[in-house]
Design a protein that fits this description.
405 residues, mainly alpha, 80% helix
Amino acid sequence: MNLTSRLRRLTSMPTFNVLLALSAAHCLNDLLQSVITAVYPMLKADLGINFAQIGLITLVYQLAASIFQPVVGYAFDRRPFVWSLPMGMCSTSIGIILFSYCETLPGILAAVFMVGIGSATLHPEASRITSLAGHERRGFAQSVFQVGGNFGGSIGPLLVALIVAPHNRHYVMWFLLFAALCFAAMRPICRWYGEYLRTLRTRTERTEHHAKLPLSKKRTLFTIGIIIVLIFSKYIYMASLSSYYTFYLIDRFGVSVSHSQIYLFVFVVSTAAGTLVGGPVGDRYGRKLVIWVSILGAAPFSLLMPHVSLPLTVIMSFCVGFILSSAFPAILLYAQELLPTKLGMISGLFFGFAFGVGGIASAVLGDYADIYGIEAVYNFCAYTPLLGIVAAFLPNLKKVQANRR
């Protein structure tokens, strides 16, 4: 079957329009989320705060998102709610308004907390609905969903450079237009999900709740521990790039704030490209291989990046973003395959843990940067992708499932 035939088969899925809407909602949500970190240089100048306080802002935002995600996932697994996605976007919109006008650190912390709650609602719910809509093509569905988020995160800093940086932080209010578009994208999702729930309630038994675990409980817990180590290694390095990459470029190479945002855009768009590749490759060759290559494979580029020129730094950041980002769809689907009856909770747990690791790492790295300098952060974080070697201990679920047939 050639590429054209495969694409025609995939786009003919009855739920393909729902998947596109989910991807669009994820795109617009993550675009709004990325505004927070992209405005950090302006926020630092406006409020006169230091790197440790920048790290604190990220910590509050990430912890709000991480702590509530598994809670939201578990709650809506038990009691599904059709309008959960618009509810989360309401919280994000309030946070954006506060972030635009607050002139005190406590006000900014309240704003990013509200944005974090919005993220905590959208990610587990939208990921679970994506799995339900994807049916037997869950890898493809998850890639469509994830690439939307990464694309939104990539264009957010670029739009900040074009809309906000030439003026002042109050121009962040213009991003409420994207919130309105997100509400519109959620309408077909809510309509389909409502019909799905009504159909589900007419059945006498929910067959997805009778799926067998591929591994024993003891081995499942061990495997989840390995996945947590892999997320830890991935998101420490990603936190150094997403929160401090612009400061690093300004400090080391003397680039302007606007140019640093464009270079950040190059990095973040690479994550969208990597995400698009990771899911389908995992479907074809197995999740374990993708996880192994994507995390450990980033180490050569991360180790070289602190020692090269500006053009090579931009190239290295693209390579690291592309390779590392291909891991998350594979990790998430691998975890969902471990516990197929808890899709929302698992999505919330791993999205939440990723956010939490990123938040704690940002706070610690901010304090480290204040003491030792921003370049020291990248010399230290360059070694974290080497933890990807623990992927060797992951069971090959594709082989386990094949042996059971």
